[in-house]
Amino acid sequence: MNKKKSILDSNVFYTMIAIVVGFIIGAVFLMIAGISPAVAYGKLISSVFGKPKYLIWTLIYASPLIFTGLSVAFSFRTGVFNIGAEGQFVVGALTACSLGILLDLPAWIHVPLCVIAAALAGGIWSLIVGILKVKRGIHEVLSFIMFNWIAFYLSNYVVNLEVIHKEGGGEATKDVLASSRLLFPESLRTLLDCSAANWGIVLAVAAAVLIWVIIEKTTLGYKLKAVGFNSSGALYAGINADASVLTALGISGALAGLGGAVQILGMSGRLSQFAGQEGFGFEGITVALIGSSSPIGCIFAGLFYGAMKYGGSKLSIVKAPSEVVDIIMGCVILFIAISQIFRVLFGSILKKKEGN
Fold this sequence. Notes:
The protein is mainly α. The chain has two domains: 1-35 and 321-356, no CATH class; 52-319, ABC transporter involved in vitamin B12 uptake, BtuC (Orthogonal Bundle). It has 16 helices and no strands. It has helices at 2-8, 11-32, 37-49, 52-77, 85-102, 107-136, 140-159, 186-192, 200-217, 219-229, 231-236, 241-268, 280-290, 295-312, 323-337, 339-355. Helix 4 crosses helix 13 (280-290). The longest helix has 30 residues, at 107-136.
């Protein structure tokens, strides 16, 4: 009975239920559209697992999502709602792209410089909001929403500056220099049959492990969690709540900025003018929720979301709308959000059985 209780108390259990329900509801919408769920889901699965290079593309898609998921998850664990990962991702991408174009350095200097600068840009972008919260009492959600749009228009402005704008027109920057790319060696990319295979997933997993260590194994992590759990109690215990908030937002923003660097230096190689917000930061919220705000959980949640994004892009081959992925992910989040209802329901059923 204790084993049943531990399963019913597990976040993984309710996440798996939410995913199954999401696919069921997605199947219903596919049938309404006159499309066979078996054919659509079969294509979705084969597009991820059909060939080794498909798995590599899944990892490429997942890497920036793991970073933005970590960004949101870290802030959740420390009591701050970072809805600004989108803006931090954009300024990180913009910084990495600009330095990747303007600086001509050896690769062993160029790559770390671009990555570190992107992390700093994201961290500073987030810290500004933290200062507004701590010094002026402005709620971070409002500030982050505004800063997302500021980053959006700032990026579009910089993209069109002559110094980095693509020659001959177009709505994108020049390609970043080869010395700034995070790509695998050419021989390995040829072997994997994937021209965009890069070190992003390695960096993402390393970041997740590092964040787990910080949260679970360090005094800093204990202080940040204490403030997130009960800021008044933490203050009474002598913990500087304001400093903890700023630290949490700085680290959170740096993680999102790293996601932007990985996307530019690993996959795209350039920054395009935005027609609308790309959504990496908002997708990070989904990853954090699916991963139960656990750094290690964010790895698996990011891989799942990356597989859904890459596989979903191939659904048009069977004339199924790629939007079905958004329906599935939306349903997953909805059922995770109301999982407490199922937790109480299953708990009461288990108590009745124990009573009998």
